[in-house]
């Protein structure tokens, strides 16, 4: 099979999942989004589960590529101020260019609640976030004990849903209407007296 076309179909499926949700992810919709002849997606991914698996695998590939790029970008933030700026940038990406990828991932998470094999495929993404944030905390010179890493990671994960929905009242109530202030405040809450 043609790997370029396979990747094109998987990327189109991410877009369909982000735009139309789990119910909208059909072979026909993927064909249309990829601008390929009808039946192409079904030839590559014969069942809906195969299509879901392909999207999950593509999301994992994209996550690992982003993690590798971040790891290769240098030693990490030098202090809490740099860490807050980095986290704000990551959250800004969720509301901007990264929105389709994150929406697709969350749709896959919902599907995974009913498909344990899909949860197994997605597990490395969620699990890796805890290690990544521990590394960032240590790089910034902040304690990275398990409780602090969990609090930071889960708070950031929770923020994603509100950023994606974009409801102004909720964003303001959560402090997400000012991402720099939000991340500084989050670090201050997780590391009282040690963060900006």
SSE run:
HHHHHHHHHH
- Rounded mean pLDDT is 92
From the N-terminal CA to the C-terminal CA, the straight-line distance is 52 Å
Structural class: mainly alpha
Largest sheet: none
Description:
It is a single chain. The protein is mostly helical and 196 residues long. The chain has helices at residues 3-24, 27-34, 40-44, 48-71, 80-95, 99-112, 116-139, 146-165, 168-174, 179-190. Helix 1 (3-24) packs across helix 2 (27-34), helix 4 runs parallel beside helix 7 (116-139) and helix 6 packs across helix 7 (116-139). The protein is elongated, with a radius of gyration of 18 Å. The relative contact order is 0.12.
Short précis:
This protein has 196 residues and is mostly helical.
SSE inventory with pairings:
Blueprint: H1 3-24, H2 27-34, H3 40-44, H4 48-71, H5 80-95, H6 99-112, H7 116-139, H8 146-165, H9 168-174, H10 179-190
Helix pairs in contact: 1-2, 1-4, 1-6, 4-6, 4-7, 5-10, 6-7, 7-8
């Amino acid at each position: 099979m043609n790997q370029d076309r396979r990747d094109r179909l998987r990327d189109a499926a991410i877009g369909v999942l982000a735009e139309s949700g789990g119910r909208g992810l059909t072979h026909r919709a993927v064909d249309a989004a990829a601008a390929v002849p009808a039946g192409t997606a079904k030839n590559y991914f014969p069942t809906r589960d195969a299509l879901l698996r392909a999207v999950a695998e593509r999301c994992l590939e994209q996550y690992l590529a982003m993690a590798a790029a971040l790891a290769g970008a240098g030693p990490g933030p030098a202090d809490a101020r740099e860490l807050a700026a980095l986290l704000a940038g990551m959250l800004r990406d969720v509301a901007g260019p990264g929105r389709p990828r994150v929406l697709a991932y969350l749709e896959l998470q919902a599907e995974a609640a009913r498909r344990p094999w899909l949860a197994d495929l997605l597990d490395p993404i969620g699990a890796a976030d805890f290690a990544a944030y521990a590394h960032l905390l240590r790089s910034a010179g902040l304690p990275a004990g398990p409780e602090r890493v969990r609090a930071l990671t889960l708070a950031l994960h929770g923020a994603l849903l509100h950023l994606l929905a974009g409801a102004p009242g909720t964003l303001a109530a959560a402090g997400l209407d000012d991402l720099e202030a939000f991340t500084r405040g989050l670090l201050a809450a997780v590391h009282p007296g040690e963060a900006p």
